[in-house]
Amino acid sequence: MPLSGKTTIADAVYKELEKLHIPLERIDAKDIRDLIPDIGFTREDRNRHMHRVGFLIQKLQKNSISTVASFVSPYRESRKAIRDMVTNNIIVHIKADVDTCKQRDYKGVYERAIKGELQNFSGINDVYEEPQHAEIVIDTEAMSVDEAAAKIVKYVKKHYVK
Predict the structure, then answer these.
(1) Distance CA 45, CA 93 (A)
(2) What is the pTM of this model?
(3) Half-sphere exposure of residue 37, counting CA atoms within 13 Å on the CB side?
């Protein structure tokens, strides 16, 4: 599982929710950054980026399309903005300590951040404000991808699927 495991777990959740035959989209941070490449990684840039994500999800919801989204969201204010913009928002905190993320780092980004080549890197040279009101917390050291996905899908089915 790469880094914290957000994308891997979200992909597994999406695959399971697709079986319910509901209108569903999968959005990952990389997709949006590829679409809007000049957004940086400062606190202001990340908050603006999350507002764009919230706007996109909001538009999909207005057309009865649910989303499974995975993003690094290190600041409380950007998570609150998404919560305010999007209905039926479930915050899933994928918990992995920095040492675990370094071990999973197949891209070499943690090493580059430690060397100072990457700035504003959450957990290294920028803050990560842990979510205080996440509906679900997944500890990736104690739970496999399949277990994590099953826990999230169970929550969605219980609270949102009729």
Answers:
(1) 21
(2) 0.90
(3) 1
User: Which active-site residues does the annotation give?
Assistant: 73
Average pLDDT value for residue range 97-126: 88
Local structure of residue 106 (DSSP, 8 states): S
The two three-digit tokens of residue 18, written as one number = 């697709």
Distance in angstroms (rounded) separating the CA atoms of residues 36 and 49: 9
Domain boundaries along the sequence of the chain: 6-160
pLDDT, tens digit (0-9, with 9 covering 90-100), for 63-105: 999 999 999 899 999 999 999 999 999 999 999 888 888 888 8
State the CATH class of domain 6-160: alpha beta
128-139 pLDDT, tens digit per residue, is 999 999 999 999
DSSP for 11-57? HHHHHHHHTTT--EEEEEHHHHHHHSTT---SHHHHHHHHHHHHHHH
